[in-house]
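hey all, quick one before standup. I had two proteins in the batch that finished overnight and I want to keep them in one place so we stop losing track of which output belongs to which input. First protein below, input sequence then structure tokens straight from the run.
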Amino acid sequence: MEQKSADSRYCQPPERRGLCRGEAAEYIGVGVSKFDAMVADGRMPAPKRIDGRRVWDRRQVDRAFDLLEGGGAVEDNPWDL
């Protein structure tokens, strides 16, 4: 009988694409109220509606995050070594 390795018995669950409000806020590293403000001012996308739920598309959140200001050249910091 062929024995499977430990790695082949288990597979990773798929990465979730839809995020609830709290998950979307945590995903970009801000609190829920700041995320709400960013949705209101257009820096973050509006949610999709799935029946009565509001769900943020992780890919749209990624694109919006990429467009935020900042992230240019970072000065060398000797403490980062």
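OK second protein, same deal, sequence then tokens:
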Amino acid sequence: MLNRVVLIGRLTRDPELRYLPSGQPVATFTLAVDRPFANAQGERKTDLIPVVAWRKLAEQVSAHLAKGRLVAVDGRLQIREYESQDGQRRRAVEVVAEAVRFLDRKAEPAPEAAATEEFEPAPEPEEEDVPF
């Protein structure tokens, strides 16, 4: 049997990292994936797909990803059932990530901000510091 999911999309928000009582890290995030076709009005729909990463991958995702980043997720589809607070049986569908590849670079600071930091004028020397 085969259960494999490969997605490419952008994060809709920063990953949320938490630790289970056992100390195991888990990160959750939502991936926006455009559908490959347009509807009758020429608009493309976007699917919002929940993703879960565990252990070291969870910590890496949390440390290096942020809203808007483009990633590829390789994993498996998981459907789990739970009981809500009001006693209703519910289903949750999510992708359990086995690998996440970063497809873009972190946003660089604006050129103006970088120039300001790099080329700050040196302080004027005091009379005692002048060598003549």
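Flagging for whoever picks this up: Helices lie at 55-64, 111-118. The two ends are 84 Å apart (CA to CA).
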